[in-house]
């Protein structure tokens, strides 16, 4: 669903099943990237690339959510890049997340601002994930997992990127002792 000026929208849902796209998902635009959303009760897999890129303006948004243990499998690239501003990528799963080429929400132009990436896996499996939120002004990225992330076992923050592996074993990170049912929480990532 590519557009001459603005990318279109792709919405995929499966209440109890799995979403399995056998090719590329693309909602690119010249001035504004489009939107790709997938929500499955079990797992999501896309055989090809996922892109909401913009060649001359704002990157689009990618949101993939798998509520079941089957997880997310994306062997291709996931891009929400833009010339002036990077877009956003959110990958959230109860199960594992595998994105072969990582998540790219960078901005490529002079004076640009990088986008945002949020990745959260409930699986204890090791996660290997690269992210790119570069721009003249760097964007933000948060990676959370119940397993290791790129081999890391402890939290690390800096340069607008926070990595939080093994969240269920880390003291003070989203533990029952510091989260109260019914309350709203705001998470802010900063330098």
Spatial ordering of strands, largest sheet: 1-4-7-10-13-15-17-16
Label the structural class: mainly beta
Could you give a short account of the major beta sheet? 8 strands, mixed
Mean pLDDT: 90
Total beta strand runs = 17
Poorly predicted ranges: none
Q: What is the overall shape?
A: globular
Rounded Rg: 16 Å
| Percentage of residues in helical conformation | under 10%
Q: In sequence order, what are the helices and strands, one letter per element? A: EEEEEEEEEEEEEEEEE
Quickly count the helices: 0
Strand percentage lies at: 35-45%
Characterise the protein shown here.
The radius of gyration is 16 Å and the shape is globular. Helices cover 0% and strands 35% of the residues. With 191 residues, it is mostly beta strands. The chain has an eight-stranded mixed sheet with strand order 1-4-7-10-13-15-17-16, with no helix packed on it.
Fold topology:
Blueprint: E1 9-14, E2 19-21, E3 25-26, E4 35-40, E5 43-46, E6 50-51, E7 61-66, E8 71-74, E9 78-79, E10 88-93, E11 97-99, E12 103-104, E13 116-121, E14 131-132, E15 140-145, E16 156-158, E17 161-164
Parallel strand pairs: 1-4, 2-5, 3-6, 4-7, 5-8, 6-9, 7-10, 8-11, 9-12, 10-13, 12-14, 13-15, 15-17
Antiparallel strand pairs: 16-17
List keywords for this structure.
191 residues, five-stranded parallel beta sheet, 17 strands, 0% helix, globular
